[in-house]
Amino acid sequence: MQHARQAGFPVPAVASVSGPDMVVARIDGRTMAQDLARRPWRLSAHARTLGGLHRRLHAIVAPAALVAPLGEGEALLHLDLHPENVLLGTNGPWVIDWANAARGPAAADVAMTFVILGAFPRARSPYGAFIDLLRRRFAVEFLTAAGSAGVRGSLPAVAARRLADTNLHDDERRAVEDLVRRMPAP
After folding, report:
1. Distance of CA 67 to the CA centre of its chain
2. What residues does each domain of the chain span?
3. What CATH fold (topology level) applies to the domain 29-182?
4. pTM, whole model, 2 decimals?
5. CA distance 78 to 113
6. What is the pLDDT of residues 95-148, one digit of tens each?
7. HSE-up of 70 (CA within 13 Å, CB side)?
């Protein structure tokens, strides 16, 4: 976090750290996901903002000491940079939840966000189907804004990492597998 903050990336200042606990500066605002739920007409703007955050982050050279779980590369990766981890404050967006920070190819970080956004269980109601449509549109617009070069090639490794997450439910696992099957080979 400090490395990204020192490079000018929008990360809240760390006030204190004690073991796994961290206190950061308060950001007044809501998450991008909360804002999308309240103002869905902002979908395209938020997708561009998220894509821009990825581009800015990947321009930062990662510390060599960081792990590279998805291949070699010099870009700083968040590996969980999606609308729930972007706070929209009065001074712009702020990125939180850096537990998965790593180094590697930028395309792997974009692919991880695409999988998080695009792999979700299918809705069982008309309203849910509408939300699914918005999520798919957001994922595609994000991919356009972030840059899709190399993303397809990163999908197998990213999907394997996502599927290894013990917090995923069975229907989420099936959604990840389905998304990867639907994507054409690189």
Report:
1. 18
2. 29-182
3. Transferase(Phosphotransferase); domain 1 (1.10.510)
4. 0.92
5. 10
6. 999 999 999 999 999 999 999 998 887 778 888 888 888 988 999 999 999 998
7. 31
